[in-house]
Amino acid sequence: MPTKFCTRLIMVEINEQDNTEKKGLNFVEQIVADDLKDGKNGGRLNTRFPPEPNGYLHIGHAKAICMDFGVAEKFGGTCNLRFDDTNPVKEDVEYVDAIREDIHWLGFDWGDREYYASDYFPQLYDLAIRLIKEGKAYVDDQTSEQIAAQKGTPTTPGVNSPFRDRSVEENLDLFQRMNAGEFEEGSRVLRAKIDMANSNMHFRDPIMYRIIKHPHHRTGTTWKVYPMYDFAHGQSDYFEGVTHSICTLEFVPHRPLYDYFVRELADDTYCPRQIEFNRLNLTYTVMSKRKLLQLVKEGLVAGWDDPRMPTISGMRRRGFTPAAIRNFIERIGYTKYEALNSVSLLEYAVREDLNAHATRAMAVINPVKVVITNYPEGQVETVEMDNNPEEPESGTHQMPFSREIFIERDDFMENPPKKFFRLAPGAEVRLKGAYIIKCDEVVKDAEGNITELRCSYDPDSRSGMPGASRKVKGTLHWVSAEHAVDATVRLYDRLFNVENPAAETDRDFREMLNPDSLKVVEGVKVEPFIAENASKGKKFQFQRIGYFTPDYDSTPEHLIFNRTIALKDSWEKEQKK
Ligand code: ATP
Ligand code: MG
Question: How far apart are alpha carbons 71 and 76 in whole angstroms?
């Protein structure tokens, strides 16, 4: 079942890509191009990315960022960064700083156009006062439960609040006293007086303001009333000069209300418009900030930037690159249909970018010692290794070779099956970049564990020597035992073990966490070049193993590497079995 599902998903994704390529522009870009051609808004293009600073950004936000900044870039417009900070209870400067860092890292810049919805609190308040005076808003003394109970359903009209016909004077007085802090949270709200029978539920006298007494991270205790999203967003767009307010599909039913409030301000020369595209949803993870916050708060992950998290900061720490993320987003494209995107496609993009740019080096994750009995004791020679055959200008580095080396324990089998082309008693393999060796003897401890392999080498088989071209079936990675540096690696796997945790509504999402999402391996042996170059952000390919990057916790005394991704997609293979 999962395989079939995945196949369908990938087909959808590829079709979307084809469409995008054929048309050249995606549907949002097409709308923008048409508006510009028609000279709307004086020919101006201004988008905005509007995160609420109540959590770290995730890969879904990256899709919105690529759209908002990307379309502005493409058509010579500008994109604002606007923090949608209308709920002081959940918001914090820590998140503001993290959001800024993540957008820059993805490769976008808002210049001096950094704004806050809270910058517009005075104008929004003035507009609310005006609407009250015009009989378009009223203070409702009911509880949120009572208000919800009167809302009706999409097919049955709602019921008017008993406070709906209050006088303008009373409404003005109560609203001002709400903001002066005279009333308790939840005791009163300001509502727009629109239409309790409207087929669009958002028009049934939506709440404009609620009382919150928690101090705000920017405006302190100045305000005791805070605008709701629907009363803040469109107007903030207007105050800022935003022309195209691009958001995700769940806002489609809000659009008439967006237009309703914006029309109170706009005129023929300038009016912002909302356009919606499909969200990014990824398999084997969750994208809700509330759930991600829960994982962090409950210590189920190491923090917002835990490399297993779908956050931008987690992906950065894990070793994903901005180019890989942007390529992935470009491939899945923008449509009007909700989809679940396969994480394999993201991983493919990561491998593709790292394959092109990561530095090749040797590390042995699960080492077993090999003693080359006919190699002179104390002798050391160096072999030259390409840093990246895909990038010839990246040069080479030297790697020491000596009598004792480490190879991967899995690369030896005492009783190998037929097609095992690695090391076995009496078999020959090439040590990558160096000699051919043959296994002569297996040394074991009292419990029967292999402690050492005794081999002999063919001195004629190294590159540049007459026997260099001699073919053997297997080539192994290795490191010189005397020169190897110890390291720890953290092997990451998917955070959840079900494809779409959000769809399993009858289960606690924490039950679906993959218990094997992190394995820590100590005693890994890395070549000295890796230790010397293990600076933050450096990308390595440990040959035949995968892509790795130094973790933030890594120090020269204790090297720690995160596995960004294995070389091959073993997960997909598992599923096809
Ligand atoms: P919440 O509103 O529950 O806090 P949110 O994910 O909507 O969470 P915002 O900070 O409001 O968070 O999002 C900022 C912008 O990012 C919005 O324009 C939103 O549409 C967009 N966005 C959020 N999640 C996704 C996603 N999964 N795919 C694409 N865009 C997204
Ligand atoms: Mg939101």
Answer: 8
- Each residue's pLDDT tens digit, 95-121: 999 999 999 999 999 999 999 999 999
The backbone region for 47, taken as left when phi is positive above 0, alpha when psi lies in -120 to 50, beta otherwise, is beta
- Is 4 considered catalytic here? no
- Residues within a 6 A CB radius of ligand 1: 50-52, 54, 60-61, 63-64, 84, 247-248, 279-280, 287, 289
- Burial-class residue 25 by CB neighbours within 10 Å (0-12, 13-18, 19+): middle
CA distances (Å), origin 212, targets 187, 275, 400, 528? 11, 31, 66, 58
Catalytic hit among 210, 289, 318, 351: 289
Q: If DSSP codes are grouped into helix, strand and coil, which group holds residue 515?
A: coil
Residue 526, classed as helix, strand or coil, is strand
Q: Is 279 considered catalytic here?
A: yes
364, exposed or middle or buried, with CB in 10 Å at 0-12, 13-18, 19+?
A: buried
Could you tell me the CA-to-CA distances from 90 to 52, 86, 114, 124 in Å, in that order? 9, 9, 20, 21
DSSP state of 58: B
What is the distance between the alpha carbons of residues 243 and 273, in angstroms, rounded to a whole number?
A: 6
Say what the pTM is.
0.92
As given in the structure block, the two tokens for residue 62 are 């990256």
Query: For residue 450, is pLDDT > 90?
Result: yes
CA dist., res. 423 & res. 426, Å (int)? 8
